[in-house]
Amino acid sequence: MLYLSHVDYRSSRRWNMAEVNDLARSRGVLTLWDCSHAAGAVTVDLAGTGADFAVGCGYKYLCGGPGAPAWLYVHPRHQERAWPVIAGWMGHADVFAFAPTYEPLRGVRRHLTGTPGIIANEAMAAAVDIWRDVKREDLAWKHRSLSELTIALLEQECGKFGVTVTSPRKYDEQGGHIGFSHPGAGSVCEALLEHGVVSSFRKPDVVRFGISPVAISHEDVWVAVSRLRSVLETEVWREPRFKKVSV
After folding, report:
1. Domain 136-242 is classified in which CATH homologous superfamily?
2. Nearest-CA neighbor of 187 among 119, 115, 105, 247?
């Protein structure tokens, strides 16, 4: 079994899923992909590339919010062959049979375990209602446009203040976010939050801007980079109150 994150959480570098799946199959290896930093931002074609299994979170680009349910993909060729790692009540063929032996449901639902998180699922349902009207081609175009704009503005407006884009320049190698390095990255991230820009810090020196094509506009990118430039230009990030850094 080959397990890979489709997108690196720090640099946002994206694997070519089709090439990796082909190479794995040629050697008799199954693939399991973590698509948390890809699904909902960049195009992911699990069935088309022949991925065996995939997992991901619902709270990032799928817009489910904190505590949102995760998701599981099992290629149809494995759905009746793979026994659940954890055989749970909700994955039983007859949930209310309370039988002394376990018989899994048909298909991917056999991997359900205990009682679902009702509140989290209800919140996720609101996001799903939005996603039903989102066309894949529109999502792909907008994310590409937002990502290219973000990189261009970071270099144009903030390069002279120590910002270096760390994400790939080639879009087909990019994931959902754009990362950049700065010597004071953690404090910069804290200062940005006070200035109304939510980013994330990853040690030792990387700040990430999540590019959600459903929720973010081109104007939002302009505003975020403008506020970043102000934080760097005034060196407000050096103030003592920004020394305590969250990750």
Report:
1. Aspartate Aminotransferase, domain 1 (3.90.1150.10)
2. 247
